[in-house]
């Protein structure tokens, strides 16, 4: 197995070749391997993503894995259920052990695509339990990436994620209570904005309890002049008010105060809040 993984990783390296002939040959070999042995190919991609010393190969593995399990491809549907479960479990393990934050987000993308691909035929109950378990992890970045995953699932497969409003409510409750972490609360806000869009009006109403926490977060970020987040602050505020004006109506004045505070600050570059 170790020899096979090494040869497979060499193939991935050749896929990144600048030499057209070598790259084209590698693409033919990879495509043939994926078509003839989908299970092993997906397992090898995850193995490289878990263990490779090459960041380039890890990133390429994440991209190729996501492409292979896309709903537009036939490979996943042709894999038997037992092997599907094994690959799903390995993907979740890959998320947990991935030390690189950027690559972990690419694994999140793959998880959301796989959930979308398999949802109609097979439920992925372990994914929900995985989210609930890891959102309480002591690792702050892991919590952030779980919130990013919720955001992606809300976009990719709303039917699955909106079926567990009580669990998601508790996740937001936990995340917005993290007073010492602006990052967790910020990503909770981004996930929150996507999640409430997929709920019906009745279920959405119970989530209004988190709006004061969101406002508090935005005031803190503005007061601390978080330059790397200010553009996202403005975008989030715009999205919040414009997409669901009725949902946020009673907090209109508070949002106006934030916009005003941002616009009059001399510390922020003019081109951040002026249209091009």
From TrEMBL:
Q: GO molecular function terms here?
A: small GTPase binding
Q: What is the lineage of its organism?
A: Eukaryota, Metamonada, Anaeramoebidae, Anaeramoeba
| Keywords annotated in UniProt | Cytoplasm, Nucleus, Protein transport, Repeat, Transport
Please name the GO terms of the biological process aspect recorded for this protein, alphabetically. Answer: protein import into nucleus
| Compartments it resides in | Cytoplasm; Nucleus
Spell out the SUPFAM superfamilies in the cross-references.
ARM repeat
Which part of the chain is the IPO4/5-like TPR repeats domain?
A: 101-256
This protein is called Importin-5-like
Pfam name, any one: TPR_IPO5
Q: What is its main location?
A: cytoplasm
Where is the Importin N-terminal domain positioned along the sequence? 35-94
Does this entry carry the keyword Transit peptide? no
Please tell me one Gene Ontology term that the record gives under cellular component.
cytoplasm
């Amino acid at each position: 197995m170790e020899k096979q993984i090494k040869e497979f990783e060499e193939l991935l390296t050749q896929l990144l070749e600048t030499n057209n002939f070598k790259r084209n040959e590698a693409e033919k070999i990879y495509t043939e391997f994926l078509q003839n042995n989908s299970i092993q190919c997906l397992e090898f991609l995850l193995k490289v993503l878990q263990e490779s010393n090459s960041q380039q190969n890890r990133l390429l593995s994440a991209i190729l894995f996501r492409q292979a399990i896309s709903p537009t491809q036939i490979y996943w549907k042709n894999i038997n259920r037992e092997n599907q479960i094994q690959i799903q479990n390995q993907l979740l393990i890959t998320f947990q052990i991935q030390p690189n934050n950027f690559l972990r987000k690419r694994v999140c993308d793959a998880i959301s695509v796989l959930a979308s691909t398999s949802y109609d035929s097979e439920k992925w109950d372990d994914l929900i339990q995985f989210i609930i378990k890891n959102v309480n992890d002591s690792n702050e970045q892991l919590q952030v990436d779980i919130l990013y995953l919720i955001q992606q699932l809300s976009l990719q497969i709303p039917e699955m994620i909106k079926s567990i409003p009580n669990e998601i409510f508790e996740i937001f409750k936990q995340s917005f209570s993290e007073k010492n972490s602006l990052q967790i609360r910020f990503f909770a806000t981004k996930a929150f904005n996507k999640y409430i869009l997929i709920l019906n009006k009745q279920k959405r109403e119970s989530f209004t309890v988190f709006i004061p926490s969101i406002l508090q977060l935005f005031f803190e970020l503005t007061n601390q002049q978080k330059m790397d987040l200010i553009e996202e602050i403005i975008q989030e505020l715009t999205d919040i008010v414009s997409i669901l004006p009725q949902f946020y109506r009673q907090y209109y004045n508070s949002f106006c105060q934030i916009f005003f505070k941002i616009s009059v600050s001399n510390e922020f570059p003019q081109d951040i809040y002026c249209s091009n």
